[in-house]
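Reply to dn_fold:

You asked what the input looked like. This is it:
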Amino acid sequence: MKIALPSSAGGHLTELMQIKNATDKYETFFITVKRKDTEELSAKEKVYFVDDTGRNPVALVKNILQSVRIMLKEKPDVIITTGAGAAIPSSIVGKLRGAKLVYIESYCRAKSKSWSGVILYPFADVFLVQWESMVEKYGKKAQYWGGVF
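and this is what came back:
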């Protein structure tokens, strides 16, 4: 089984790294934006860099094209994401080509939905929240399994 781990850099990537050991027996790769901390990650892990969408339409188109190329090359079976803008295109492209999608809502979202959570909710096979209060905010698909920290 091959697992894609897309996320924006910073806190989203930090949360994704908290569950990385659960994927160690599988072939994995990351998709994120290029920054100093993610360049350091690429010394230890397989990492693809995509443009940060930043709610910029041109960057979004570039990210979508990069995501299509990556997903067609790698063909993951499962996508596990903590979201944010840079991860949304690869998550949707991977889902449309047949991968299962697991979304983990950010730990900082204790009272309100995130933009990436709202967008990826309909695509997710498993939708996890890190606060019990968020189950009712999202609806019946949302599940609380605890926090990643």
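The chain has one domain: 2-144.
Hope that clears it up.
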